[in-house]
Amino acid sequence: MKSMGATQEEYYRGVRMAPYDLLKELVFALAGVGVLAVLISLVLSSPDVAPVTIATWAQQDPVDLVTTATGELAGSTTSAGYGPPYNSASEGQSWGPIAPQKWFGARIPIDSANSFVMQPLQRASFSNTDLGAALSAWQGASADQQSKWLDAYTKALADATVTDGKVVVATGEYGPLPLMMSNLLGVAQAGGLDGLLVINGRFYQTDYTQPLVFMGDGEYLAGLADEAHLTGSLWGMMNETGSYPGQTWLWLYTMWYQVFPFNSDTGFIGLNADNADLGIIILMTLLTAALALVPFIPILRDIPRWIPIHRLIWRQYYAPRKVAART
Amino acid sequence: MSATSSLGGTTPEKPNSWTLRLRQAIDRHLPMDHLLPDRQPYYVGSWVYVFGVVTIAALVWVVVSGVVLSFMGPQWWHDSHLGKFFNSLHFWSVQLFFIFMVLHLWGQYFMAGWRQGRAATWLIGVVTFGISILTAFTGYLSQQNFDAQFIAINAKDAMNSAGVGAFFNVLNFGQMYGLHVMLLPIGVTILVAVHIVLVRVRGVVKPIDSEGGSRS
User: Which of A87, A141, B49, B162 is spaced 20 to 30 A from A176 at the CA atom?
Assistant: First the structure.
């Protein structure tokens, strides 16, 4: 095999060479791009909307927080029925035999009722005998009785009002739920639940899985995202708050959520809105592989020859031939 | 045949020196006049070739601003005017990096830049593009603001559906931040370096009809 040095010299044999200063080009590019980036940064700054805390959620929309917490106990929230990697309540998304969500199991275990409601309340009941008694009553009740209390309380919450930051519902048979939820709301409004959901038995922590899953179960954060035009119908997570460009390079990925079969209930060949995440991940993996393998895929690799954009790019190279053809 | 050592003199035939063999391989495959050329084919004067070098320039600014941000810690830029400036510089450098990289990619596509033994260069370029998207994604998740929360809550479903979420937890700030400031940038930088070396080893490709087609 010939060395690369010889190959490159052979490759360019007969080609007119021109002076070229690689280092100067790089330095000029660094300076130009740097000036451009600094100017844009000074003029436009960057987005930084403060994060939502569970405390602000509890203060701004206490009914939603209590409704969400009640749903956690009832097992009716998104996380309670999510499946892997959080629990085994469902198998998660699949397409025919392809079910990677199920394959890897519940590696990040979350028991929504215990994690988001019971455990925080048990910690809060340390010096609160009324709450301790309410928790004992709840845990001592049969599953059927708990279900009746939850049904009645959930229906009552639909017409709940807020007085002095507290959630008020019509009188009814709710068992210890109003007292439990009143305490949970109080802890949340004081900022305690933000801490209790990241507690891990060690001093330092950097994992916000639990509070984010809990907030994702509620409507408050989703409502703020909707007001900020971030939600899925408007191209989802490629958006950024304000008028800033977000992850625009995800346009193709997010586009698939807007089109058939991924936006359809009935779908096509088993792909529909219910397993859109998995279907789109598979599709994007195939498309990315196709892009990487373009040099080996007929038609895709031939398109540049058929569409004469290269004649614009190398117009200096092609120009003398036209002259030669005329003469 | 004998080989010349770096200190002059000669070494025996077929030297058992890994260092010498490595140096000889580099000399053979990547001589300095290819690595830092002062002459190029005249058709390299096209403006499309600029997209590659400005992509590298934007990456340098992304790394420089990112190093400052990571040195000062993930909360600094929320409370400091200087920190906000460096975050903005990081943000806009990333935007420019992607704009230039996409222009470079489309330019190379319509030039069929993979021809005549350059398929690996193209393939590594596409992989770099993919790893860059992942790096930016972990950056958006590491912002510690409302955008990060919203993106994490939404992105988890896609990751979980593919089974990836069991190992790559977008809700775990520590994991995302570690990947963003360390492993992924190193990956992008190494891939870009390999991509550039391959370009220099092979040289830029000739115009399309100079060898009749766009096949690899």
Answer: A87
CA angle, residues A146, A148, A151, in degrees to nearest 5: 105
Q: What is the pLDDT of residue B46?
A: 87
Residue A301 has pLDDT above 50, yes or no: yes
Domain count, chain B: 2
Whether residue B159 sits in one domain with residue B92:
no
CATH number at residue B135: 1.20.810.10
Instruction: Enumerate the domain spans of chain A.
Output: 54-224
Query: For an interface test with A, which of B81, B115, B147, B204 has the most A Cβ atoms less than 10 Å from its Cβ?
Result: B147
Contact between B184 and A125 under an 8 Å Cβ cutoff? The reply is no
B44 and A291 within 8 Å at the Cβ level: the answer is no
Q: ipTM, 2 decimals?
A: 0.92
Task: Please answer yes or no on whether A107 and B167 come within 8 Å at the CB atom.
Answer: yes
A-B contacts at Cβ under 8 angstroms: 291
In chain A the first and final C-alpha atoms are separated, in Å, by 43
Identify whether residues B86 and B127 lie together within a single domain. Answer: no
Residues on chain B touching A18 (C-beta within 8 angstroms) = 39-42, 44-45
Contacts of B123 in chain A (CB under 8 A): 292-293, 295
Distance (Å) from the alpha carbon of A146 to chain B's nearest alpha carbon: 30
Closest residue in chain A to residue B119, using alpha carbons only: A295
In this prediction, residues A162-178 reach a mean pLDDT of: 96
Q: What is the mean pLDDT of residues A209-233?
A: 90
Structural domain boundaries, residue B52: 46-111
Number of H-type helices and E-type strands within chain B: 9, 3
Beta bridge partners of B205: none
Confidence of residue A181 (pLDDT cuts 50, 70, 90): very high
Residue spans of chain B under pLDDT 50 = 1-2, 212-216
DSSP symbols for A97-160: TB-HHHHT--SS---HHIIIIIHHHHHHGGG-HHHHHHHHHHHHS-HHHHHHHHHHHHHHHTT-
Map residue A72 onto helix, strand or coil. helix
